[in-house]
Amino acid sequence: MPPNSRKPRILVVTPEITYLPDGMGNLAQRLSAKAGGMADVSASLVNALHAQGADVHVALPNFRRMFNLGSQSVFKTEYEKVDRNLPEQHIHLAQDRIFFHRNRVYSAKDNHNIALAFQREVINHTIPQVRPDLIHCNDWMTGLIPAVAKRYNIKSLFTLHNIHTERISLAKIEDRGIDAADFWKECYYLRPPHHYEETRDHNPVDLLTTGIFASDHVNSVSPTFLSEIVDGKHSFVPSHINHELWQKCNSGNASGILNAPDASFNPQTDPHLEHHFSAKDHPEGKAKNKAALQHALGLKIDPNAPVLLWPSRLDPVQKGTEIFSHIIQRLTKEHSDLQIAIVASGEFKKDFLEIIEIHQLQGRVALVDFTEPLSRLGYAGSDFMIMPSRFEPCGLPQMVSPMYGTLPVAHDTGGIHDTVDPFNYDLNSGNGFLFGHYTSDGLHWAITEALNFHRQPAEVKEHHISRIMIDSISRFNHKNTARDYIKLYEQILGCPVTD
Fold this sequence. Notes:
Layout: E1 9-13, H1 37-51, E2 55-61, H2 72-85, E3 91-94, H3 97-100, H4 111-130, E4 134-138, H5 145-151, E5 155-160, E6 167-168, H6 170-175, H7 196-202, E7 205-206, H8 207-214, E8 217-220, H9 223-230, H10 239-250, E9 254-256, H11 282-297, E10 307-310, H12 321-325, H13 328-334, E11 339-343, H14 349-358, E12 365-368, H15 372-381, E13 384-387, H16 397-403, E14 407-411, H17 414-419, E15 433-435, H18 440-454, H19 458-475, H20 478-493
Parallel strand pairs: 1-2, 1-4, 2-3, 4-5, 5-8, 8-9, 10-11, 10-13, 11-12, 13-14, 14-15
Antiparallel strand pairs: 6-7
């Protein structure tokens, strides 16, 4: 607990962020480095905390090239401006050459060194400078920090955005400037450590599991994905991760908090759209965007054609590309006006292109690499969004698409279960079409249900789409996500963190 004379101090440690509040200094709007949803959630949380008067600090790598900070002299000048404008520095950029000239957050070649350099700076410099009451860590690249926090009686929250982990020896950790001898007993190893010297070279630290094991509380980015892991429903989750999460859940120290889409996903204001629309005038707005989408992708211009959008990366392990590919020809035969728009990049691209070529589906099925403008146009101009993920820690397309009046057709798993409710005419409820059995037949059934909705009278469709758009925009936003994190902070600390 912090002294009664001050608010608790929160340190958010994240390798990604999209923006910071203007009030945190001159550098705030220049510090954008994003690889996934973690960046948006971190930004929205820090913004909400700052707006509500919390004592919030942020630690992130100094990705100088991505931040457009230019030379070290330019960075130093801007950094000094921040110091003059604030009574205390709240943005803490980890300094190491390995960050400076990168153009992306992660790299298979350098990930271990990036993670260790980042954590070294946070452990050796930021934590002693900030003296936080609670540290909020994110994913495996921050996994050692809860162990350090535990050693020094600092509360910590560890957020799982994915289940990816890495293992690194204590020897390498120490060679990179982190004195692991001080907290090695708080780390997680695949086998029990006998003593420090034996463990140092021959028993690697599991970084993600260390974060889970050492933290005071763990949260995943959806409640259902957490329960699926704990119940052993995903064979790809290592048993030791399953066990540690079970322990946290069993002790009441694990929960799920949904991510939310970036605030720019709004059909009324989306900067990538030429034709904006709202729940009130969506029929006209979506018709204009459908025509623009069909033209851009080389699909037949047909205002009455139902358009299915695939917006997710073409990942054959997670995203369900195979079960969708098995029914594309069948769907186009059964529904002569059906069109499919695949706006995505990834490993399965060549397989979809072969299907289009072999079955001569040009003009009916289009595949283009992902770009942000085309993706936004896809959400605005399609009727349905396909998301047959095998598993989904959270997912964002199933939240984005109904905001644009494009209804999700998705596998009932993980974050999808928490955000897509089965459509029901009689109860005037639901926002999409779910299938429970992960098969091509299950996906075919859900798509058929969606196309049956498309054939309903215009007034029926307009009523439900308007209802769904209004509900989705109010339900899926960063304000709600930040509110839940703030409640969790207060639960961990036992006191308020905002004004």
